[in-house]
Amino acid sequence: MVKAAGTFGRSGPHDFILVRASAIILALYAIFLMSFLVSVDQLTYAVWTNFFAGMGVKIFTLLALTAVLVHGWIGTWQVLTDYVKITGLRAFLQFVFSVSLIIVWLAGLLVVWPVEGV
Which residues of the chain are under the pLDDT cut of 70? Predict the structure, then answer.
């Protein structure tokens, strides 16, 4: 079995499971948000803020952001490994995408966690 330092998991099957699990989490989160948007009569700042002030929503949002990080990390590694054959360019692109994913995760954490109800 091939073990590569650029993968998120320990092996190919482990990465396969992580991608599928993260996709399920993201699908559930999308359904959760859509059901909220459909169920609310009028979407105002107060409604939106109170929704994200709940601890369950914050935790689910951070779980979804982590799923984005894992899914993007593995997907980027797989695509770059398959299509970018120049090692230096592939390493640079992987670094840029990885740092971008981490910044998105941190920004999500800093935006969602301090939200308090109105």
Answer: 1-10
